[in-house]
Amino acid sequence: MNFLFCGDHNAERGVLIAVLSLLKAERGEEAHVYILTMRAKSKSRSFKPFSQHAADFIRSLIVADNPNSSLELIDCTENFIKEPPTANMGTRFTPYAMLRLFADELPQIPDRILYLDDDVIIRRPVDQFYTQDLTGTELVGVLDYFGRFFFHNQKKIFDYLNSGVLLLNMPEIKRTGLFKRVRHLMQVKKMFLPDQTAINKLAKEKRIAPRKYNEQYALQDDTVIQHFTTSFRFFPYFRTQTVKPWDVERVHSVLHLHEYDDLLNEYLKLKDQL
């Protein structure tokens, strides 16, 4: 199976946890991981790329689990410079989230690949989701837990996908020019959650998968992938809540979640080697 991550050095902790969870869930299955990064800076921020050292360390864990597995760190700086998301650079949007949209221009990227945000934990094997028939489908994802109520792009009531877990059919994406059109829209139109919004707006061949493949609210009995997104909480008062898996103390104190204690204890032992 093939997996895609994007990010700067701040993504290193999350990718380590996601990969550790992948190795635990898939138990020796061959896995090929691709990490897209770049050198970037804006008027208000500068970013450090995902380091080669961190990539090499995570690769060592993957290869120790299965010698046929691999990890490749890909520098997308030139791609980004050539097509920057001009209209959205002044927003809270993190430019590294856009890097997956260059996958159609990278010869290293295989035909079928599962994109994952760096704040996910794989709880159970993903093979049933990964191996589904993709004929006539650009991508497969799960409805955004809150956005499904507010954003609609087609005549269906619910059609707004969360882009944190996406199974990508790269030959079809190249055929329809989906990512190329998304990159252009991000250059010319300012949007809320621009990459996710543009994907939803322009994808005509998207398939909606069950919630269990991208659980964004609270762990369920059948959850396969849990996604630690910012969520809305209404009791005892309205607020947003953000807890990431690498913030182990808050996973316990705020989420009262101990499902992943073995995994997170392993992460705590390894994180200083990144």
Q: Would you kindly provide a written description of the structure presented here, covering whatever features stand out?
A:
This protein has 274 residues and is of the alpha/beta class. The protein has one domain: Spore Coat Polysaccharide Biosynthesis Protein SpsA, Chain A, CATH 3.90.550.10. The protein is 30% helix and 20% strand. The chain is built from 9 helices and 13 strands. The protein has helices at residues 12-26, 52-65, 77-82, 127-130, 170-176, 178-188, 194-202, 248-253, 261-270; strands at residues 2-6, 32-37, 40-41, 46-47, 70-75, 112-116, 120-122, 139-143, 161-169, 206-208, 225-227, 231-233, 239-241. It has a 7-stranded mixed sheet with strand order 5-2-1-6-9-8-10, sandwiched between helices. Strands 3-4 form a two-stranded antiparallel sheet. Strand 3 (40-41) and strand 4 form a beta hairpin. Helix 1 packs parallel to helix 2. The mean pLDDT is 90.
Helix and strand layout, with pairings?
Layout: E1 2-6, H1 12-26, E2 32-37, E3 40-41, E4 46-47, H2 52-65, E5 70-75, H3 77-82, E6 112-116, E7 120-122, H4 127-130, E8 139-143, E9 161-169, H5 170-176, H6 178-188, H7 194-202, E10 206-208, E11 225-227, E12 231-233, E13 239-241, H8 248-253, H9 261-270
Parallel strand pairs: 1-2, 1-6, 2-5, 8-10
Antiparallel strand pairs: 3-4, 6-9, 7-11, 8-9, 12-13
